[in-house]
Amino acid sequence: MPPRVNTYQTLILTLSCLLAGCGTLSNVAPVAEAPQRAQRACGDPQPRNIDDWLPLMVEQHSPGMVVGVIDAQNQRHYWRYGVTDLEHRNPVNENTLFAVGSLSKGMTAEATAVLVAQGRLRWSDTLETLLPPTVALSDDAKKITLLQLVTHTSGLPRQNMDLPMLTAFVRYLWNGENFYAHLDSDRVVDDLAHFVKPASDEPRYSNLGYAVLDYVLNYQTGQRADQLVDTLLFAPLGIHHASFTPQKLRAWPLRAIGHAGSQPKFVPAGQVVPDWQFTGNMLGAGGLYADTADLLTFAAAHLGSTGNSLLDSAMRDAMRVYYPREKEAANIAWVSDTYGEQTITYQVGYIGGYSSYIGIDRQHHFAVVVLQNSFTWQNNLGHSVLLQLWREQNMASTCGKNAVI
Known about the structure:
Layout lengths: L6 H14 L29 H8 L6 E7 L5 E7 L15 E4 L1 H15 L9 H4 L8 H4 L3 H5 L12 H13 L5 H4 L22 H15 L3 H13 L45 H4 L1 E3 L1 H9 L8 H11 L9 E2 L4 E5 L2 E10 L2 E8 L4 E7 L8 H24 L1
Antiparallel strand pairs: 1-2, 1-9, 3-4, 5-6, 6-7, 7-8, 8-9
């Protein structure tokens, strides 16, 4: 019988949560706020231009930040704040590369959804059939489905809980260095031999689950997750400035440099921290670099038809809610929060010295991307902008009706 999580493992997980700030399904969910200074009363029946209120909502917590918005008329807008780093002080813009961390998961999950649409995989496939027969699996691990991996409902923990992981994590708190070497290697599947499913089916954010997904994709297709994303997602969408091997991109030398913020805990805020580089099973979970313009292109593909039936099918799958609840409902990689009549579907990413956000309101045709070159938990601007876009639109409609009456 596989061992249950013991007191030692629980202590490791608790320490990690206390020192790093454990996230939720969304990897630390933002809170939607619309500051009073951005609100208005009835009077002008037309919605205000975004330029009138968005800059007032920005509280910059990073050396650089770029905000991109798609409005209800499908127009794109960009706001640029700060610099790539405090030494070279190159201004950031919508073509500046940032590490986007767990936004990578959204790309990998939707490439997986394309494979399902092609009939090469099924959401009901289990690890027992998806992994090599030489991989040791507990009875509970054998039953984990492909759908459970991409929706964070497998029950797998955020990462493996052992002494080497704790040791690497403590080093990170002092130097900012990558502590996910185990998950990046093929040893990641070793953690499945003793997996015991939690009693509750509630979604649990899992880097381990997405590293296993990368392993599965490579075994099933002969291609790594990054290669599948390039072929199945980026090429048909015309995304040319995002990459899991960003050193190949022309924008790499002028990329935004990562800085400490809320994390690492014991590195002074504003100090440059190391880039996190992955070469194995964490590539598709956290290895992507992208710019704001390409991420808006990715978001826009979810607001209407792409003209590609396989992509459209994959994105419909990705947008569907598989674990319903008002806050942090589980989609495929995406998460959905409901605020009255508005539903915000989003992803967030935190890695090294970066924070990222991509969110959409499909019903009202809004999308927002926020990229920052500091690790900051204060990542609620995207939610706040989407909420304010809807308030402006709703206010114009309400005031117009009242004027007629």
